[in-house]
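Do me a favour: review this protein, sequence plus structure tokens, and tell me how the chain folds. Record follows.
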Amino acid sequence: MKTTQLLRDQLGLSQEMMAYYLKITLSQLAMYETGKRDLPTATLTKLSEIIVFFEQKQKVSKEEKQILKEQQTKLQEMVKYQVRELEYKQIKAQRALDKIQKKYNQSLQLYSLAQYLEKNKTELANVLLAQALTGMEKNSLANQAKELLRLESLKSQLDYVSTLKKK
């Protein structure tokens, strides 16, 4: 691999941008990178400047260290915020699931009562039966599963964000 390809890779530049910087045509650069042509001396001088820059760059400057430290601090703050947010959502989802399960169980009990009253020919049985069926439908096992899935998803997200917190 030619020097320009390595440099382009480190800098994230396209061949077009590198050719523009070196003040040569794209085809000249492409031919150099494939070994079909040498670069002009002025271009080699510009390349050597970049290489010298990278060699000097091996030592991280104080400014870069400060920037990195600031970025890490921001990352930690963001992670803490995300953890709190996910914990809150997790508590909320758990409460919603508990509420659905409780109402479903209440509807089952009401259904049993309505069935009992219907055997005894009580007028109220039909009203209670309708209410129980509505409650069972509204708080169905499918809705409980959906809420449980949401809760598990939040737990997974929280676990992942917690691993970021440790890094």
Q: What stands out?
A: The helical segments are 3-11, 15-22, 26-33, 41-56, 62-119, 124-138, 141-166. The chain has a mean pLDDT of 89.
